[in-house]
Amino acid sequence: MLNKLGAVTRVAVPFLCIVLLMSAPIVHSQSPRNFAQIRRELKSFYEQGMRKNGIIGSSFMLVQDGQVIAQEFFGLANQEKQQPVDENTIYHWASITKTFTGIAIMQLRDRGLLKLEDPVVNYVPELKAAHNPFGSMNDVTIKHLMTHSAGFRAATWPWGGDKDWQPHEPTEWSQLVAMMPYTQVEFKPGSKFSYSNLGIIFLGRIIEKLAGEDYEVYIDKNIFKPLEMYRSYFDATPYHLLRNRAASYYRKEGALTPARFDANTGITVSNGGLNAPLTDMVKYLSFLTGDPRRQTSYDQILKRSSLEEMFQPQINVAPDAIVQPEGQNRKDAMGLTFFVEDNYGQHFIGHSGTQNGFLSHIYFRPDTRLAYVIAFNTHAQPTQKDSTQDTRRLDREIKDYLFQNVFPLFALKKDK
Question: What is the pTM of this model?
Answer without folding.
Answer: 0.89
